[in-house]
Each structure stands twice: as C-alpha cells, then as structure tokens.
Amino acid sequence: NAGVTQTPKFQVLKTGQSMTLQCAQDMNHEYMSWYRQDPGMGLRLIHYSVGAGITDQGEVPNGYNVSRSTTEDFPLRLLSAAPSQTSVYFCASSSGGLDIQYFGAGTRLSVL
Amino acid sequence: GQQVMQIPQYQHVQEGEDFTTYCNSSTTLSNIQWYKQRPGGHPVFLIQLVKSGEVKKQKRLTFQFGEAKKNSSLHITATQTTDVGTYFCAGREGNDMRFGAGTRLTVKP
Fold first, then answer.
1. What is the pLDDT of residues B60-77, one digit of tens each?
2. Cα–Cα distance between A97 and A92 in angstroms, integer?
3. Which of A6, A31, B52, B104 has the fewest CB neighbours in a 10 Å radius?
C-alpha cells in the first residue's frame, strides 16, 4: 500500500518557469490538500479538495492552481515560479473532512 | 482568522528529562491534532483530541485539550533519542485547519 506519493522529490526552477507537482493516493480518500513548509512557520495550507471536481483555497493560495479530476490525483501547478515559492511542499489526504491526515514524502523546490 | 501559536520553538534536553510543548489558538477549536516530523521526513499523525478537557496517553506521551478548547499540550516523560523531531499541533475551526510553527526537540544521549 503506497499511501500518498509525491513526485518529484527535488526540483530546481528558474524564475518564471512553470511546473506541476504531482500527488497521488491509493487509499480512496475524498479529502486532499497541499501545504508548504517554511522554516519557523509550520505548515501552511495552499489549496484543498473535498472530492473530485471540488477545490478550494487555503491560507496561501496565490501563485498556485489545483484541479481534482479523479479521486486519486491532486496536482499542484506553479504557473510562473518566483523565489518566494522556494519551500518544501507536502501533499496530504484524509478519509473525511479535516481528520487524520496522511502526508506524502514531500517535494523540495528551489526557485532561482 | 484563526491563529495557532506553539511554544517553545526549540527545546534541547538530556536523555531522561521530560519535555512539554504548548499550543494556543486565538479561537475555539473543533478538535486538535498532533503530528511528529523526524528530520528530513514528513509529518506523521500522533493523536486527535476532540472533547473539552480531554486527556490521552500513548506510552510516555500525554496529550491534553483545554477546557475552553483553545489550548493543548504534549508532554513526554523521560525522553529518549528516538523522540527527536519536530512536534506540530494543528487546530481545526470549521473547514480551516492551521498548524502551529512546531517545537523542535533535540535529545542529548
């Protein structure tokens, strides 16, 4: 059972480039979310989804887009990367609402 | 909006000493969760508290939820080197979940 899988594990971008961070879960969880983790600031919610076709903004959504076409996948898109988006990104899923969240291993992103 | 504050930011203890981290919310929470993140790893769920005044124990770890459901604490008795990591609280108010900044625990053997 893979749980929550994130790819890639590491990525370096130049300012202005675009990319998609992939997240997939095989637990049939309805709720999925994206967080960014910066030193001294804990985890901040970027976007979340309560089911296929439904997404909503979290605490820090600017500069990021998401879509949820299937229950399993919840990609995070950076349309024009900025140095302020250098961070560690975690995807998480849970079986209902905002209950126990299972996190992926994370993507470490650097924007130069 | 909801703010979740966690103290201390860092704690260094000698193995065998106790450790406590505190979490305070600016608003009343539906529940509070605690996660542990090992260095270089991802957050792993430890426990969820829902009821006012609730106390739960997991071996050497004791979790409390305040009577007003605005604060919580995690206490570790007789720390071990395996306890090293960052402990996060996460508070839920409706659909809004906010994480504290975490307490990084280091343990000297």
1. 999 999 999 999 999 999
2. 12
3. B52
Inter-chain touch B99–A100, beta carbons under 8 Å: no
Burial of A16 (0-12, 13-18, 19+ CB in 10 A): exposed
Tell me how close the Cα of B90 comes to any Cα of chain A, in angstroms.
9
For residue A104, give the amino acid letter.
Answer: G
Q: Cα angle vertex A10, ends A9, A13, to 5°?
A: 140
All residues of chain B having their beta carbon less than 8 Å from the beta carbon of residue A106 are 42
How far apart, in Å, do the first and last CA atoms of chain B sit?
41
* Residue in the structure block whose two tokens are 């305040």: B66
Q: What is the pLDDT of residue A55?
A: 95
Residue B1: the pLDDT is 64
A35/B contact by beta carbon, under 8 A: yes
